[in-house]
Batch of 4 targets.
Target 1
Amino acid sequence: MVYHPEFEKAGQQAGLQVWRIEKFDLVAVPKNLYGSFYTGDAYLILNTIKQRSGNLQYDLHFWLGDFCTQDESGAAAIFTVQMDDYLGGKPIQYREVQGHESKVLLGYFKAGLKYLKGGVASGFKHVVTNEVVMQRVLQVKGRRVVRATEVPVSWDSFNQGDCFILDLGSDIASSNIEKRNVSNASGDMAMSMVAAENPFSQSALESSDCFILDHGSDGKIFIWKGKEANLEERKAAMKAADEFIKKMGYPKHTQVQIMPEMGETPLFKQFFKNWRDKDQTEGLGVAYVSNSIAKLEKVPFDAATLHDSPAMSAQHGMVDGGNGEKQIWRIEGSDKLEVDPSTHGQFYGGDSYIILYNYHHGGRQGHIIYMWQGSDSSQDEIGASAILGAQLDDELGGGPVQVRVVQGKEPAHLMSLFGGQPMVVYKGGTSRDGGQSAPAGTRLFQVRSNSAGCTRAVEVDAVSSNLNSNDAFLLVTPGASFVWMGQGASDTEKNGTQQLCVILGVSSSELPEGGETDDFWEALGGKAAYRTSSRLRSKDKMDAHPPRLFACSNKTGNFIMTQEDLATDDVMILDTWDQVFVWIGNEAHEEEKTEAMASAVRYIETDPANRDRRTPIVKIKQGFEPPTFTGWFLGWDHEYWTSDPLERAMAELEL
């Protein structure tokens, strides 16, 4: 029997052991580095299980990296046979190849596998990375099994479809939620990674610099300006955010918030562990509430307790109940013109606006500057809104939080600013003097509320196919007006339509779904199929299982869905509980299209809620969406994809 010193340590007690082949020798890998494999090497992995009888069971694997030499591969096979012999021939042996590992092996590494460049022949040793100066980028792939592969340290290695980790040795940063430092100490503005702890440590925020907190996966970018940062850094904050959004490939509607030191909002603070405000006391002083960034349980909205619950504030997007003071300006050319307070809350798709909101939190006054950009607003006015918003920030001493808002992506807090009345968005047009066009004789408004009880009324085309059983609608005609109540509409949405009647100066009669009159259908061009289902008609089901939109690459669920969330180069899964839709974009890869249905089946089978495996799966293609699908999206536009995708993308990048 062949002997090796490592054999004496093998399989003596239950657990996992890993060795690497180094110059035809067997060398143990430190336990804290289990799961990391150099692609130029070969490894032995032994898993020992103690059975109830007291006997030991062995699973013995030899793993081959893509670039390991023939000699190393042969040595691994020989050591495997010798160790098997030493253990009395009891082990089950496995030959494993990088990227094609058995389920048994993958089960050992719950955190996934990490493939690192190089190997022992290149001088790479298994060491603790925090003890050396090194930099590397890991590309993370996988649905249920995560594999992290080292790629070149370059922006060219990043793409929007995958997750990446930048390993700086003593600091680790993730591109899902991360902080970045913005500095021009060298004379040129530059961005560098900062350790991401998720939740972060407040001590990482240095007063002499500006920082970007990247929560792009949820459509949000935060910029924190240190009070001692130089003027150039503070002025370049929004520009840095725009460049960062483009660099990361995030959509143009990504929300940007810029805030000064000591002016942090509850939304920002909830990403940090043990956040402490200046002069905050403990014990009988100011109460401190610690929350976890990963809290998943639903927190009911209660405006009276917002200041005591950052989790509620973050989950519902509310810094307060919206009762503070506000000013609103409309962008005209390169200037801003104050909007008459009597029309606050009414927005035109052809305009851009600046909203200044003043609130109090923790005994201090805060400011929020919302820059609302209409979908039909000119590029010049969109650019002017950003410039004028920055100027207003300077006038207020650099203290306000700045929020860029694209039409259709309004935050809950913005919707709450209008005294309990709905936020009204008119279809196109403008409110400027001399620019108004006469409204259409027949108009249809869709009213929908959010979890915080705020409503938004969006003008849509006046056709019956735009009705939705889950919402309330106001139909205005020259002769009469109707409030149409879908069976799934809430009382809040009903109240919103009544308030909308007051805003528009019309009186209406209420029609429940199923009780429509001939005049109602005639005003909408005739009766037609619209968005309805047992799910849309039920209030309780929507609360129990809110709809979730997923990309087949296993991206984060999206609870506020708009048509723009559907990526034309991807395959998406929309889960409405009673059925699962598979939406196929025209530019999706053939492999993604082929695997789409199988992905939906796996999604249902692996749902922790023990879903019925017979749940219907509906496969639909871009441009041919039925009302049962479009009903889950606010203000669906059937002409949205008729424009050239490349031209639309180029227009977005110019913003």
Target 2
Amino acid sequence: MKKAFPKLLIIAFLTLAFLFFSQFFTSAVDENNASAEKVLPNGYIGGGVAQGWHGDDSSWDYTLPFDFVFYGEAYKDIKIGSNGVICLNGEGCSSWLYTLSNNFTSGPIIAPMWTDLRTDRNSNDIFITENADNVIIRWNAVEYGHTDDMDIELILYDNGSFKFNYGAQATPIVNNLPQVGFSVGDGTNYFESSYHLNTDFDWVDSLVWGFTPIITSTIPSNNGTGANLTQTPSITFDRTIYRATGTISIKQTSDNSLIESFPATSSSITGWGT
């Protein structure tokens, strides 16, 4: 027997969406409106494998050990620039002359400290640490025309989130105010962080962002009618989803009234990543 369902809106709360870190859970950013950041106590890690990348206005190819999803697109072959920035589509990443709002040459970028840096002085280098679920990129660099070292870290997580860490910085930036944030490269979708245009990053708090996984399909369909009573409700995302605490609610779109609610930890929910 078939029965017409009322129009339903399936809402998977953020805590269902993805497990961000083992230590904390952050608010996510809508993938088309990246405008939120979370400030955390300084989480600078240090270390890493020296890449031998010494240069000024230079960039190097690097292949991530996982697909990194940014604004709904997956990236793996990227470029890492000496100027405190990475370019996700592997295009030019050597210049520091652009801003997050008018970045039309480097495509999608993430910039923990995009300014005129160099990694060919002192014992400067770029260091990389590959972990099971993340990659740490660390710049040990100096500002062009100066000699004092500074340490900057970018952590990319395999769930699409990322984090900026800052270590020691003996003297503030002098010449060019750093661009701090990220950009798609279209002049519209970009975000200037709370540290944007700052000059002193000496052991400041860390910044972190997470992008909400995108729902690609549901059964029954969102606002759908005429669902078969024998159908098992399902939600399909654009990436692997891991079990976390939270609640799944099914609501009626006409008045937002709750039809059913159950915990994400329920054994009746299957399909989690492992």
Target 3
Amino acid sequence: MKRYETGEAAPYGIYMARNKVDIRFVGADGEGLEGRKGAVYTRLPTWLVVLVGPALGGMFVMAFPLLVIASIIGTLGVALVRKLSGNHAYVARGGWQPAAAFFKKDQAEPGTAEQDPELEQLEAEVAERADVEKRR
């Protein structure tokens, strides 16, 4: 089967691109094949279009009411869920709370912490400077 690229002159017929999923019709011999950029088209035989066309049309006619009903149910379902959950959406909303991880941390027994002598020396120095500042 001969392949035609977009913009190339092609004979009368229906063409299908497999790599870009596109179907085009050429109405006159030598007319340029318009289509998607970079698409490669193959001419579909007329007998295939005549046989498959009504079957595809019938499938569309049978499926269209089901598609409409499904879209209506989906739209109503989404609206209902949004309506019912709108007042309580703040409960499900997550927030970044880095300190929340330490709320359940085991607390040390009072008076069991070891005192660092250097820390005691710094505390005494800070207290002494605070007294000097108060006197001024």
Target 4
Amino acid sequence: MFDRLPSFVRVGLFCLLLGTCGAQIARNAMAAPVTEPVAKDVKKAEREAASRVGGPDVKAPLPAVGPGVVGGNGVVEPAGQETKVAAQVSAVVKAVLVHEGQQVKAGEVLVQLEDAFEAAALQAAEADLVAERANLARVLKGLRVEDKDAAQGEAQAAKARADLSSGVLARVEQLAKSGASTPDELERARRQAQSDQASLKVAEARARAAEAGSRSEDIGFARARVVGAEAKVAQAKAALERLSVRSPLEGEVLQVKVRAGELYSFQGTEPLVVMGDTRTLRVRMDVDERDIAKVALGASAYVTADAFGDTRFAGKVVEIGRRFGRKNVRTDDPVEKNDTKILEVVIELDSSKSLVPGQRVTSFVTAATQG
């Protein structure tokens, strides 16, 4: 039937059908646009898939993590973590006596701060102590024999003067009764006699004190001054000692933060020296909260580092944290999830001469068997 129609009619029907199909296709395209996934979305999906099977979010590809292994990022640290050594006072750095990588003993001086003023103060305090001890010895010993003899001689001379003036007064009084002496002469004789008697009492008191020795009050006072001088010496020594910054432990100098001539402030956040016991290294590993039930004390573990390729550093789990927190180890991935809750797990390495504290590693722990 279609063949019997005129040619111009058949052409018109074909054009009408073609226009109707094109309009329907356009409407479908506008209603549900189709987009192809971009590379960023593909990478994100791959990372999320890796995290769901226990692998950490890192830029470099991780070794295969099976159901019997828990993986996570970690950082190398000395046994007992790093120790940041600081001073108790602000001062100019006089000398740095250690260098990075040096092994030191506990109590060894690491940094010497400027101490000229404190050293002079100690010398002055020690001189005062010597003087006070000498004074105490003098008080305890009392006067010398020569001093005692001199005191007795002064007392005897005073008695002789008092006896003489008393005799003169008696004669002047007799003469005054007969009118042979004037009232003025009598008054002078009386005053001289009184003065000599007073001098006699003072001289006799000195002689008795010289014979008896020092009083208990004087001895106690002298001893108290010695104790005070000793306390000042101890205070000066402590002030001087604070300027010698010593190592609190036996270990390795990991980092020196100051140079000679710089002004150090104890109120700042930077330490003088960072130390650690590197004879045994540990890795502090971040374990996702979903995997913590798979980790047990004593479980075998190993870590890898980008710098050493596929080399595995074996160890075991020696500590499991008791409190969840935020991630401690950050990677360079700009879209890394940092709000994931983790639990810290500490791995003690068997041999780790190649690793250094602060180095980021990827950690793997043999998962505990689920009963």
